[in-house]
Specification:
Length: 181
């Protein structure tokens, strides 16, 4: 989408012109609406991004990423109840959506509910993707803390840290060579 090219070039006016033109054309599918919302989000225009994402939801989108992105934009706008609803809607569409689970926990919704802990730990056990595991470990730590189980929270945070180390390719020798050069 041309708007994304303008956004990458930090051309706010060009990106917003393209986004407005795309929005005027109807109907846009999930992918186009998500790209349009991403352009608005890139420039901190969270209100316009949320409106576009709501348009996708109203059109019957079953894409959990649309709900997740709506939740993030609503969070930036200070609508924490709306963000919570959007993250929960994303999880209703995709119960193993690790980023939505972590975002919901980060809103302070961790209750230490045994069912939530069971869902998170089951998703964690079934998820080989290290990036998803990082998000799930974060969510589990919030839930364990809320349940009054700090030792389990620290254990799962250590597990998340290990997943993070596995996901990031860090070569200390290359860093030292770069500094010495």
């Amino acid at each position: 989408m041309l708007a994304r090219c303008h956004a990458r070039a930090q051309d706010l006016a060009g990106a917003l012109d393209c986004a407005a033109e795309a929005q005027a054309r109807a109907p846009l599918g999930d992918v186009a609406l998500a790209a349009l919302a991403s352009t608005f989000t890139h420039f901190g225009r969270h209100d316009e991004a949320a409106a576009v994402l709501r348009q996708a939801v109203a059109a019957g989108s079953r894409n959990p990423a649309i709900q997740f992105n709506l939740g993030n934009n609503l969070k930036f706008l200070g609508d924490f109840a709306g963000a919570r609803d959007a993250f929960e809607a994303a999880l209703a569409l995709a119960p193993d959506y690790a980023r939505a689970r972590a975002a919901l926990s980060a809103l302070g919704d961790a209750r230490g509910d045994p069912e939530d802990l069971q869902r998170i730990t089951a998703a964690l056990a079934a998820t080989p993707d290290p990036r998803a595991r990082i998000h799930l470990c974060h969510a589990a730590a919030h839930e364990y803390e809320a349940a009054g189980r700090p030792d389990d929270a620290w254990r799962v945070l250590d597990e998340g840290k290990a997943a993070l180390r596995g996901a990031i390719r860090y070569d200390p020798a290359a860093v030292l060579n770069g500094v010495a050069a």
